[in-house]
């Protein structure tokens, strides 16, 4: 059973470009969480999605950031018009239920030049 | 007030020592408690998952939850150099986000 797959593992963007991060949850998992981690800091919650629904987006910046988890295909975290402050590791986690354990991917590291 | 407080360390112990890692949390509604281990530049790896108060043991690891004092602990027995990593606590409640501590950096010296 493959784990949570994230891609790309590393992404370099110039200021003003768009970044798209993808997350394929573990088989049988319909709950997806996105977290952001800055160097020497903990994991900051961004958004919690269930298939086709956003359950909690209280951690998402109001502008430039969006997330989706379509019926088919991976979850996507989209960052428009990136700025240097968006440089971070973005982790996706999946869970089999709303009370289940969270299993993390290896992360996508975004660098904004 | 932060949802979760965790001493960042760093913590350095000799091989074979018993390690105690702790977190406090503020929300009495939290019912689920997880501990993760994270190696440098890797994703967090789930170590322990507990529900409500009490103890749970898995090999050299014991998780302890005291909901009355909002205090959660992870004990590592017979610590090994391979246990050197950052340990994250994560309490939460059903259907909501899990809150992560900032992590405690542990080094086990051979």
Give a nutshell description of this structure.
The complex is a heterodimer of chains A (113) and B (110). With 113 residues, chain A is mostly beta strands.
Judged by helices, strands and strand pairing, the structural class of chain B is mainly beta
Q: Got a strand count of chain A?
A: 11
Q: Secondary-structure element sequence of chain B?
A: EEEEEEEEEE
- Element-level helix/strand string of chain A: EEEEEEEEEEE
List the uncertain runs of chain B.
none
Major β-sheet annotation of chain B: 5 strands, antiparallel
Low-confidence stretches of chain A: none
* End-to-end gap of chain B: 38 Å
Question: What's the helical proportion of residues of chain A?
Answer: under 10%
How much of the sequence lies in strands of chain A comes to over 45%
User: Which pair has the most extensive contact?
Assistant: A-B, 24 and 22 residues
Helix content of chain B: under 10%
Question: Strand sequence of the main sheet of chain B, in spatial order?
Answer: 1-3-8-7-6
Integer-rounded radius of gyration of chain B: 13 Å
**Number of separate helices of chain A:** 0
Which strand-content bin applies to the residues of chain B?
A: over 45%
Number of helices of chain B: 0
Outline of chain A, from the CA principal axes? globular
Q: Structural class given helices, strands, pairing of chain A? A: mainly beta
Tags for this entry?
heterodimer; A: 113 residues; mainly beta; seven-stranded mixed β-sheet; four-stranded antiparallel β-sheet; 11 strands; 0% helix; globular; B: 110 residues; five-stranded mixed β-sheet
């Amino acid at each position: 059973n493959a784990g949570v797959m994230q891609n790309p593992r590393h992404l370099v963007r110039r200021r003003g470009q768009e970044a798209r991060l993808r997350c394929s949850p573990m088989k049988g998992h319909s709950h997806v969480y996105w977290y952001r981690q800055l160097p020497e800091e903990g994991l900051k919650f961004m958004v919690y999605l269930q298939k086709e629904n956003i359950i909690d987006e209280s951690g998402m910046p109001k502008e430039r950031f969006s997330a989706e988890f379509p019926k088919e295909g991976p979850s996507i975290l989209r960052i428009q018009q990136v700025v240097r402050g968006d440089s971070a590791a973005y982790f996706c986690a999946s869970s089999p239920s709303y009370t289940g354990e969270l299993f993390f991917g290896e992360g996508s590291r975004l660098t904004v030049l | 007030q932060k949802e979760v407080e965790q001493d960042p360390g760093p913590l350095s112990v000799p091989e074979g020592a018993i390690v105690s890692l702790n977190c406090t949390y503020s929300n009495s509604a939290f019912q689920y408690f997880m501990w993760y281990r994270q190696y440098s530049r890797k994703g967090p790896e789930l170590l322990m998952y507990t529900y409500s108060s009490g103890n749970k043991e898995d090999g050299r690891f014991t998780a302890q939850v005291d909901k009355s004092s909002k205090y959660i602990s992870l004990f590592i027995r017979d610590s090994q150099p391979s246990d050197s990593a950052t340990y994250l606590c994560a309490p939460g409640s059903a259907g909501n986000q899990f809150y992560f501590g900032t992590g405690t950096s542990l080094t086990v010296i051979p």
